[in-house]
Amino acid sequence: HSFPTRRSSDLTSLCTIGLILMAVCDNVETYAAAQCLYWVGYNGISFVLDVFIADTSNLRNRAMAFAFVSTPYIATTWAGPKAAEAFYENSSWKWAFGCFSILTPSVVLPLLWILFSNQRKAARLGLIQKVDSGRTLRESLWYYFVQFDGTYPFPTRPSRDSHIGRASCRERVW
Asked: pTM for this structure?
């Protein structure tokens, strides 16, 4: 599984760039763009963490591992409003986003180090093998389009099995 290793630094960067943009924004357009970048990065980091936990825990203890990772949300229920109040009274909302743009990569860096060092170790031991799919770029794009969604995201003519007017890609007649 090289996905978490290759993409986790990209997702951390998106999250951090979003936080930096929120800290320096002066208009609603920049703030909206910053929110998009932040949430794509944040949810991506969460996904990478879920994959990491699923890959490194056995099935018997997996629920406990996921529960352990979620425990900080319990503390932020009470600590979050107090921290927000402190920023509001003593500083500004922009500096709050600035602080988190420093904290986020600092907290994620240990996980990134673990992922990258283990990937290097696996490559050194010969455990990572690149397998060629034999598909052209066009065939790969179509393959992943069908695998990840399989339906058109906009209303089309009804298929023979659909009531809602969205035809499956596999049923579509070009």
From this structure: 0.68
